[in-house]
Amino acid sequence: IVRLAFGEEALPAGAVVFVTVATAQAVLGTAIAKGRGGFGEVLKMPLVHACVLGLACSLLELRLPSMALEPIELVADMAIPLMLINLGMALRNLPITAVRDAMTCVVMRTVVGFGAAVLFVYLFDVEGLSRQVLLVSSVLPPAVISVLFAQRYDAAPRTVASAIVLGTLLSVVTIPLVLTWVL
Predict the structure, then answer these.
(1) Are 183 and 132 in contact (CB under 8 A)?
(2) What is the mean pLDDT of residues 39-65?
(3) What is d(CA 30, CA 44) in angstroms, rounded to the nearest whole number?
(4) Which residues make Cβ contacts (< 8 Å) with residue 150, sequence separation at least 6?
């Protein structure tokens, strides 16, 4: 979305927002979904280890050899299709109550996310492309990986799955509205 809306020059800013949100989701989402002992669980997560290693490699300007990088890229290319299959399995036999709860979560997430982004850009005087990327990113639908967290910790996985679907449907309206406002 960021690249389509703002061009290739917006990708670094979009990547920073994505990594920040994904890391926060992994840490806070796991701690919340797990409940007691959640932060201990966070320290066991491969995603957290990968973020720390990735940041260290970036700061130290270390590059993996192509022989090591190629299998990692192959596994990474399978991640999204596998998560989408998992999402489909979570959506089967979806009860109506899960849809109602999911819609409440999606509306709250969209309103609070956008409100927090607006507050952030005004408080910290964020301008230009960074402002645009942050505001548009704040209304993107919930990530598919949320279902994996919900399933792992038995935290209403069907509600989370329906929130992803409803959030994606709602984004057909919210993203163009925000794009119109930021452009």
Answers:
(1) yes
(2) 86
(3) 11
(4) 33, 90, 156, 157, 159, 160, 161
